[in-house]
Specification:
The chain is α+β, with helices and mostly antiparallel strands. It has two domains: 8-89, no CATH class; 104-274, no CATH class. The protein contains six helices and six strands. It has helices spanning 8-33, 35-49, 104-112, 170-178, 188-198, 212-222, and strands spanning 123-128, 131-135, 235-241, 246-251, 257-261, 273-274. The strands form two sheets. It has a three-stranded antiparallel beta sheet with strand order 1-2-6, with helices on both faces. The chain has a three-stranded antiparallel beta sheet with strand order 3-4-5. Helix 1 crosses helix 2 (35-49).
Length: 275
């Protein structure tokens, strides 16, 4: 007697049909015995496989509602309720800008925009720490160490932590440097700005060495695109101390922040004042 072997595909189809028939029979039996149990099972299956929740509504948790290329279900089955926004993506309200300066000339300068030369001879640089920042039109002459620098009796023990660590306000850092009498004083970079106060430069006595974030703000204002975009060009000291041996500087060509040796390195200084 000749035995016919079934092809693999044919066997799979037959097994599938048998499984479907058994499933329908079992489902019919469950429904006849307990319709509520059947509905619970059926809706739970749909919610796992078809994006429906146990109430028959469209479950949007699996959809990225922020993706413009994903179209969520149109609500024809149930209703769609978008998920609450995640706390980590909450957008804070915009900061309230500081009021214009009381001086009419400076107020007009602020209204004209960043980079404007004001009537008092300063340049408007923008806002940091909710204060308007103004700078002279030129750097201080020469280059400076951050602290007193090298000297004949330097034995490597003259570094000192000043606590001038504020990143937003050089005015807060100023007394910690300008009035210091420790082993690393005088602080030459700050001293360059202190000299402007002694001479009431442009009629002001509140000049200071800008803090790190103020200097980052100032950098694009003072950069000359024709001469200051080289791979390496001059750097500027901020008044923000990093640690025992380092302070923050800003490289003019990129406006990036670096840590440099405050005892040996010599860099440019551009002072600032705030209103």
């Amino acid at each position: 007697m000749k035995i016919f072997k079934k092809k693999k595909g044919q066997a799979i189809i037959e097994y599938t049909l048998i499984a479907v028939a058994v499933g329908l029979a079992v489902g019919g039996l469950i429904y006849s015995l307990n319709p509520d149990l059947f509905r619970s099972y059926f809706m739970g299956s749909l919610s796992r496989n078809s994006g429906l929740d146990s109430n028959g509504n469209v479950d949007m948790q699996g959809y990225n509602t922020n993706d413009p290329f994903v179209t969520p279900p149109n609500g024809t089955i149930g209703s769609w309720h978008p998920p609450a926004p995640h706390p980590s993506v909450a957008v804070p309200p915009p900061a309230t800008p500081p009021p214009p300066p009381a001086d009419p000339g400076l107020a007009a300068c602020v209204a004209a925009g960043i980079g404007t030369i004001c009537s008092d001879g300063t340049i408007y640089a923008g806002v940091v720490d909710n204060h308007h920042i103004f700078i002279p039109q030129q750097d201080e002459v020469g280059v400076y160490t951050w602290d007193k620098g090298e000297h004949p009796d330097d034995n490597g023990s003259d570094n000192y932590v000043t606590g001038a660590t504020d990143v937003n306000s050089g005015l807060i850092n100023y007394p910690k440097l300008a009035n210091a009498t420790d082993i690393a004083s005088p602080y030459e970079a700050e001293k360059a700005c202190k000299k402007l106060n002694k001479t009431s430069y442009l009629s002001y006595t509140d000049w200071y060495l800008p803090a790190k974030n103020e200097l980052v703000l100032i950098c694009p204002v003072i950069k000359n695109p024709e001469t200051d975009n080289a791979a390496y060009t001059k750097s500027y000291w901020s008044s923000t101390e990093t640690n025992f041996t380092m302070a923050k500087t800003v490289l003019l060509s990129t406006c990036n922040v670096y840590n440099n040796d405050k005892h040996y390195e010599r860099y440019k200084v551009r002072c600032a004042r705030r209103d």
